Amino acid sequence: MVQRAVRLSLISPIYYRPSGHTLEDAAKKADRKGIGYDAMVRYSYGFSDEHSTISRIAGGERDGYSEEERRIIESGGEIGRKEGEDEQIPAGTSLFEQLPFIPEEKDLPRLILPYSSSSSGIFYARIYKENILECVCQLLFPSP
Q: Digits of tens for pLDDT over the chain (144 positions)?
């Protein structure tokens, strides 16, 4: 498999309300939510010669940014953590890949294998509602 990820630098964290959803749950919910809905699941992973392990650590969700928040972001400002937003994708550099489909959790070991040696053992699967018809899945692998 050819590595398709690019380097992404988040200037500020993306904050989320905690949620117990799975990747599949987040994808279903995103279909029903408004544009900008954003959900993530944080995983740990490990690989050996015999098998791979992926474990869900936490999850979170947030509604789309308001018009004012979008203006702040576009001008390089930071949106602070709101009350109840106790989960996050932290600021920093990550390998980033946007998938052309939303995978099931059972498919994640195969999808993340190309990035396993260049990451910290943690990754984020993010479901984002881009427009009225389309939700995307993004994988983020923080640099060690």
A: 444 778 899 888 999 999 999 999 999 999 999 999 999 999 999 877 777 889 999 999 999 888 998 898 888 888 889 999 999 999 999 999 999 889 999 999 889 888 877 667 899 999 999 988 899 999 999 987
67: left (phi over 0), alpha (psi -120 to 50) or beta: alpha
Contact 16, 87 (CB under 8 A): yes
The tokens of 59 are what? 């999850």
Return the SS3 of 33: coil
| Distance, CA of 111 to CA of 47 (rounded, Å) | 13
| Amino acid sitting at position 66 | S
Q: Cα separation of 137 and 57, whole Å?
A: 18
Label residue 76 exposed, middle or buried (CB < 10 Å: 0-12, 13-18, 19+): exposed
CB 137 within 8 A of CB 99: yes
